[in-house]
Design brief:
- The structure holds two protein chains of two kinds.
- Chain A is mainly β.
- Helices cover 8% and strands 51% of the residues of chain A.
- Chain A is built from four helices and 18 strands.
- Chain A has helices at 151-154, 231-241, 245-249, 330-340, and strands at 9-10, 17-18, 33-46, 74-82, 87-97, 103-114, 120-128, 162-175, 178-193, 196-211, 215-230, 256-270, 273-283, 292-301, 306-317, 346-358, 361-372, 389-399.
- In chain A, strand 13 (273-283) and strand 14 form a beta hairpin.
- Chain B is of the alpha/beta class.
- Chain B is built from five helices and six strands.
- Chain B has a four-stranded mixed sheet. A two-stranded parallel ribbon of chain B has the order 3-4.
- The longest helix of chain B is centred in the N-terminal third of the chain and has 13 residues, at 5-17.
- Chain B starts with a helix and ends with a strand.
- The chains are: A mainly beta, B alpha/beta.
- At the A-B interface, strand 1, strand 3, strand 4, strand 6 and strand 7 of A face helix 1, helix 2, helix 3, helix 5 and strand 4 of B.
Chain lengths: 400, 138
């Protein structure tokens, strides 16, 4: 009898259970196929009429004052084929409304993994980069305290999170119970949306995380060469080029070298408390792309199945929002108007509660108070007299 | 910010006045056990925590108990986390390919596990045959 059939294996994931009457218990026998799934089902709305809330400034998905699940509804399925103890293949599919406002199936993960021992792993294929703490698990609502990760930080990386390439991970002990994890990747990524197309022709990243089980601290840096098509930016570039070619080069996005993204985050989870804070920044090498900084801090406390939390998040433009190299003519006015609309600065207070009403399922209710500096992530000014607006969300998450 | 004053005050009063389940939890005494054939003679509590979070670089094979109340007490004492928090943690690990949760077994089956590197926990007064106690959680 094959070894896997000679014993009884029980897995928490429920992926596989093989039973015979007697024999050794091979608890560490890995099932040949593991299936997991996750889903989020939610309704949310802006509490202000005439204000469309966006969780990502590059996305067309906006939330108006009618209840809608367009922002949070999604379902994902993962299949892992354990070919040998060292080799495995993973495919994860995700159905959600993408940045083009279309409900489509995407494949954020599809890779072959080689794990020669407990320390090393090499992945070849498609994977999500580990720039911020939650970049790689962004869509797994059940694993987060909030309804959705803070937009002020996570809008910095947009939808360019899945890469095609190679990822290497090394895990090592740093002391009693303290583990360091070094992750490096090299690859390419491409996102096509109606308003723009962006391709990272070379995306290199490195992250290092230290964890003692309760506290995790992670630092990450990503460098990318980018080719972008955006009719809005190209029109501005063409207009400026008629007056000053050197300034126009600062707006051209057809070929950009050395864009960098950095992130620093910590997560503490112990004795009922959870505290998560991250900061990230961009250097995108072009005035037309506007460098930004985002950060947030979230504090929550668990009482049985209930976890109330409070979060503050801020997005700030660190790049120039004015153009003073073109004099005072109409070209300068157009460039300044363009840059003004790139001001995504805003801050948000979020108050919510997570209720783990059943194993593997939660229900979250969250109220956000969003205060844009001007346009914010919404890309439009608030109606006269308004300095903020509220968003209410009710979401159920499930993971198996 | 004014709209948040009352909810924050309520949460603050609750947080200060009510101990979390983790603090209240006074569960059964829990013994960390390995196979009597295991070469492991001692492990720190931190090493055990790393193993049950899937972060150990040692060749340890953690096994969860099918006793739900014991499992809850174990994770509260070892990591200060509830079963729900651990479930959320493992969902993050599984869907990012960083690990899978420990398999679940009845304590009576531990003595028959073929892999000698397994690591588990039992009620301290119910040590199964063919197992050795490494430490008892305080």
């Amino acid at each position: 009898m094959a070894p896997i059939l000679a014993c009884r294996c029980v897995f928490l994931s429920g992926a596989l259970a093989l039973t015979v009457a007697t024999g050794d218990v091979c608890a560490q026998e890995t099932p040949p196929l593991e299936l997991n799934a996750h889903a989020s089902l939610g309704m949310s709305r802006s509490l202000a009429s005439g204000v469309a809330y966006r969780a990502m400034d590059s996305s067309l998905v906006a939330l108006d004052d009618g209840w809608s699940g367009r922002l949070d509804n999604r379902v994902g399925v993962q299949a892992r084929w354990n070919i040998t103890p060292a080799w495995s293949a993973v495919v994860q599919s995700l159905v959600r409304r993408n940045g083009a406002d279309d409900v489509r199936m995407a494949t954020p993960w599809a890779y072959v993994s080689w794990q020669p021992d407990t320390q090393w792993e090499v992945r070849l294929g498609r994977f999500r980069q580990s720039l911020f703490l939650i970049t790689d698990s962004y869509d797994i609502g059940y694993s987060h305290p909030w309804v959705r990760p803070p937009a002020e930080l996570y809008t910095l990386v947009g939808e360019s999170t899945s890469l095609d390439g190679i990822q290497v991970r090394h895990r090592h002990a740093l002391g009693a119970g303290v583990t360091g994890t070094l992750t490096a990747h090299a690859g390419v990524t491409e996102v096509k949306r109606p308003r723009y197309q962006v391709r990272n022709t070379r995306n290199l990243g490195i992250s290092y995380a230290v964890s003692d089980g309760a506290l995790t601290v992670q630092a990450a840096l990503v460098s990318a060469n980018t080719r972008m098509n955006s009719s809005g930016i190209e029109q501005i570039e063409a207009l400026i080029r008629q007056q000053d070619a050197a300034v126009a080069d600062d707006y051209g996005v057809a070929n950009i070298a050395g864009q960098t993204y950095g992130g620093l985050g910590l997560r503490y989870e112990k004795n009922g408390w959870v505290f998560i804070s991250e900061i990230g920044a961009t250097q995108l090498q072009r005035r037309s792309m506007t460098d930004r900084l985002g950060w947030y801090a979230t504090l929550g406390r668990t009482f049985g199945a209930w976890t109330p939390y409070l979060s503050y998040a801020e997005n700030r433009v660190t790049g120039a929002l004015t153009e003073d190299r073109l004099g005072s003519g109409s070209t300068a006015s157009t460039a300044n108007a363009f840059l003004a609309r790139r001001n995504t600065g805003q801050h948000t207070w979020s108050l919510g509660v997570r209720w783990d009403f059943q194993e593997g399922m939660d229900l979250k209710v969250q109220l956000d108070r969003v205060s844009p500096d001007t346009y914010g992530l919404q890309g439009s000014l608030l109606p006269d007299g308004r300095h903020h607006f509220n968003v209410v969300s009710v979401v159920m998450d499930w993971a198996y | 910010m004014r709209f948040l004053r009352l909810p924050i005050l309520v949460i603050g009063l609750i947080a200060c006045g009510m101990p979390a389940q983790a603090v209240m939890g006074q569960g059964p005494a829990i013994a960390i056990v390995v196979s009597e054939r295991s070469a492991i003679r001692s492990l720190s509590q931190e090493d055990i925590a790393a193993a049950f979070l899937g972060m150990s670089v040692q060749n340890l094979a953690p096994i969860d108990s099918d006793d739900v109340s014991l499992r809850e007490a174990f994770y509260q004492q070892l990591l200060g986390r509830s079963r729900n928090q651990m479930r959320a943690y493992w969902s993050r690990m599984v869907f990012t390919g960083q690990g899978r949760p420990p398999p679940v077994l009845n304590s009576d089956e531990l003595g028959r596990v073929s892999n000698v590197n397994w690591l588990s926990y039992v009620r301290s007064d119910q040590k199964p045959a063919k197992t050795r106690v490494l430490l008892v959680l305080p």
